[in-house]
């Protein structure tokens, strides 16, 4: 157990169903992720990788076990507290981009800031920050475009800018290249790499081994358990 | 999330679906407009009745005989029965704060003049104060004076429509009419007043009361107990003194009639009493209308709930996205509640404009008087807002309870 671990799970279990008809989506997962690490979680469908991602992303709670994020045990927080953690410490990048339609890129990026309970920033600060993030992902000239006016790759960039805007502890990518052609997908992975270089902790969940090897370390899940942990020494670069 | 931001988001959601938003608001629009229009119509009717009643003089007290109680029917006490002409004189002389007293005694007679014979004409014996007390005006000629009353002069003032029936366009003043067998000189014609409370003030003839006593309502007991009148009008100079004057009149008449307050032989009503009676009738009507309008508001609310439920389902993924970036159940609930509230407030505003315009339009088209009651506007608008929150809560709560994972998966 390392003290630098920013993410640590201890015997994490998630059991669906009741009585005899129960299914363990996660059956005792204990992993550690260090600050600044780029990790991929891989596994076939039904392996529990989505369930793990939902728990890591504070979208659901484990049935048992411990989840410590940023030195805080969050296994037993209520929905409201989980929402606050999602807001402050987690940035999601989804397969389907999940941008608000009919809402400009910049307002999509600002969305997490709008749910900041501290509300420490002025509207102008938020806009400035969102603009910086969009510039960082190379969309400085698309701020006021609607998602439907952007390509898939551009939409995913907006989603990444949104994930970065609240300076989270961890960015979770859920099949972030799944809806993209290979070229756009490669660009998105490159962008993740750049962000990683700047110090962000990134977890990518995928079923595709070719994507998984972009990360420094791959955690393979099978039937709700950690099957193997691989260090990807020769990282590909486009 | 800041309230201003919530309002902005909700407003954008409404503006994105203009047609649907308008249809959603329709129930509220109709409900609010209906409340305002219906209340303005009934308030207009009430105001018309009030005006008619007060147009027959203000600050009036009406004293009528009580038949069948005390007085007339019982011969036990030293009663003289009902009201008599001298009661009116006594009131005029002994009660302070009275600015005019007049009496009325009537009969139904046949009137002949100019070759025209009219039957069933109401003739009214009064005193010289009558036009002042009842706010009636003489259009042509003069009303009779005290001298005519004292000397029982055979003079008559005709109501405007009666004059027209008898003399057409010719000037009746200076002509003679026969009422019963008595010939009377026409000395004036009243200005038109119209019908108020079922009494046509223009189809009557006004005579000195002494002539009516002598010729049309002779009583063999008049010598002992005075001439009976069917109504005494007392005009009070200041409305604030009204109750005081009523008390004084009661005391005076108890004494004069030798009766007690438990067994009086007369009744006193005021204009306010009459207006109150009229109002209780229209109030029932108005309440009924208000309830009908209220039902349409509720129907409007159900419309809002309906559309909001559809909207929540359609926007499940949006809800999931918001949850994933940190929106709490509270944030989501407030957002949808605000949307319902804005829909009903905006619908309420449109309904207000439609209602106000409709009231004015209805008034000018139908000729009925409509009075816009500010409280009804507030009531209608307030109920719209309440309806919005009430019927918006369930859909908003449904949205708030969505599981973020399910919501994000929703296609």
What does the model show?
The complex is a heterodimer of chains A (238) and B (411). In chain A, 32% of the residues lie in helices and 26% in strands. With 238 residues, chain A is α/β, with parallel strands linked by helices. In chain A, the strands form 2 sheets. Chain A has a 6-stranded mixed beta sheet, with helices on both faces. In chain A, strands 1, 2, 3, 5 and 6 form a 5-stranded antiparallel beta sheet that branches. The longest helix of chain A has 16 residues, at 182-197. Chain B has 411 residues and is an alpha+beta fold. Chain B has 2 domains: 3-52 and 276-409, no CATH class; 67-264, no CATH class. Chain B has helices at 3-16, 18-54, 85-94, 130-133, 146-150, 160-167, 209-216, 222-225, 242-257, 271-314, 316-324, 329-366, 374-400, 404-409, and strands at residues 60-65, 83-84, 98-113, 116-126, 138-141, 155-158, 176-179, 182-190, 195-196, 199-200, 205-208, 228-229, 231-236, 266-270. In chain B, a hairpin with a 2-residue loop joins strand 7 and strand 8. The model of chain B is unreliable at 69-80 (pLDDT under 50).
Shape of chain B: elongated
Largest sheet of chain A: 6 strands, mixed
**Strand order across the biggest sheet of chain A?**
7-8-9-4-10-11
Identify the overall geometry of chain A: globular
The total of helices of chain A stands at 7
Into how many domains do the coordinates of chain B divide?
Answer: 2
As a whole number of angstroms, the C-alpha radius of gyration of chain B is 34 Å
| Radius of gyration of chain A from CA coordinates | 18 Å
Number of helices of chain B: 14
Poorly predicted spans of chain B: 69-80
Mean pLDDT of chain B equals 86
Q: What structural class do helix, strand and pairing data of chain A support?
A: alpha/beta
| Beta fraction of chain A | 25-35%
* Strand order, largest beta sheet of chain B: 3-4-11-6-8-7
H/E order of the elements of chain B? Answer: HHEEHEEHEHEHEEEEEHHEEHEHHHHH
Oligomer: heterodimer
Mean pLDDT of chain A: 90
The amount of helix of chain A comes to 25-40%
Q: Helix- and strand-based class of chain B?
A: alpha+beta
Percent strand of chain B? 15-25%
């Amino acid at each position: 157990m390392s003290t630098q671990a920013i993410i640590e799970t201890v015997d994490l279990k998630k059991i669906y169903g009741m009585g005899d008809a129960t299914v363990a989506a996660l059956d005792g997962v204990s992993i550690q992720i260090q600050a600044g690490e780029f990790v991929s979680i891989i596994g076939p469908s039904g392996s529990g990788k989505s369930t793990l991602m939902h728990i890591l992303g504070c979208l659901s709670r484990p049935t048992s076990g411990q989840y410590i994020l940023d030195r805080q045990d969050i296994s037993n927080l209520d929905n409201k507290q989980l929402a606050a953690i999602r807001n402050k410490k987690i940035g999601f990048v989804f397969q389907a981009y999940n941008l608000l339609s009919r809402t400009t890129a910049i307002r999509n990026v600002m969305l997490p800031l709008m749910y900041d309970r501290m509300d420490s920033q002025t509207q102008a600060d938020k806009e400035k920050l969102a603009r910086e993030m969009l510039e960082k992902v190379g969309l400085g000239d698309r701020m006021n475009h609607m998602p439907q006016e952007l390509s898939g790759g551009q939409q995913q960039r907006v989603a990444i800018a949104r994930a970065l805007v609240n300076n989270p502890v961890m960015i979770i990518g859920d099949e972030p290249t799944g809806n993209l052609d290979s070229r756009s997908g490669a660009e998105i992975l490159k962008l993740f790499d750049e962000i990683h270089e700047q110090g962000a902790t990134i977890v990518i969940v995928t079923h595709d081994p070719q994507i998984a090897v972009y990360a420094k370390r791959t955690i393979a899940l099978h039937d709700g358990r950690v099957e193997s942990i691989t260090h990807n020494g020769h990282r590909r670069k486009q | 999330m800041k309230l201003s931001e919530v309002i902005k988001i909700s407003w954008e959601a409404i503006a994105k679906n203009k047609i649907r938003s308008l249809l959603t608001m329709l129930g509220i629009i109709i409900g609010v407009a209906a409340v305002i229009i219906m209340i303005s119509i009934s308030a207009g009717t009430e105001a018309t009745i009030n005006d008619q009643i007060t147009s027959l003089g203000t600050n009036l007290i009406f004293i009528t005989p009580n038949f069948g109680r005390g007085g007339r029917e019982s011969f036990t006490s030293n009663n003289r029965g009902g009201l008599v002409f001298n009661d009116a004189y006594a009131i005029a002389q002994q009660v302070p704060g009275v600015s005019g007293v007049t009496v009325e005694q009537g009969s139904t007679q046949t009137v002949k003049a100019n070759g025209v014979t009219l039957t069933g004409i109401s003739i009214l014996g009064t005193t010289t104060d009558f036009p002042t007390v009842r706010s009636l005006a003489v259009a042509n000629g003069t009303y009779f004076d005290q001298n005519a009353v004292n000397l029982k002069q055979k003079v008559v003032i005709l109501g405007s429509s009666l004059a027209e029936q008898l003399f057409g366009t010719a000037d009746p003043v200076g002509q003679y009419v026969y009422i019963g067998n008595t010939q009377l000189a026409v000395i004036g014609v009243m200005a038109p007043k119209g019908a108020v409370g079922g009494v046509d003030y223009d189809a009557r003839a006004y005579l000195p009361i002494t002539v009516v006593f002598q010729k049309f309502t002779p009583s063999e007991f008049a010598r002992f107990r005075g001439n009976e009148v069917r109504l005494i009008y007392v005009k009070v100079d200041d409305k604030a003194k009204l109750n005081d004057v009523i008390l004084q009149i009661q005391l005076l008449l108890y004494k004069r009639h030798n009766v007690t307050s438990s067994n009086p032989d007369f009744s006193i009503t005021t204009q306010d009493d009459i207006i109150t009676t009229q109002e209780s009738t229209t109030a029932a009507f108005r309440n009924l209308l208000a309830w009908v309008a209220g039902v349409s508001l509720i129907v409007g609310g159900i419309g809002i709930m309906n559309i909001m439920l559809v909207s929540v389902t359609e926007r499940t993924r949006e809800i999931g996205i918001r949850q994933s970036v940190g929106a709490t159940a509270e944030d989501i609930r407030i957002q949808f509640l605000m949307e319902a509230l804005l829909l009903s407030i905006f619908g309420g505003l449109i309904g207000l404009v439609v209602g106000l315009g409709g009231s004015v339009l209805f008034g000018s088209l139908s000729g009925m008087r409509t009075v816009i009651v500010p409280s009804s506007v507030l009531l209608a608008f307030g109920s719209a807002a309440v309806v919005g929150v009430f019927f918006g809560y369930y859909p908003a709560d449904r949205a708030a309870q969505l599981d973020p994972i399910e919501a994000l998966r929703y296609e």
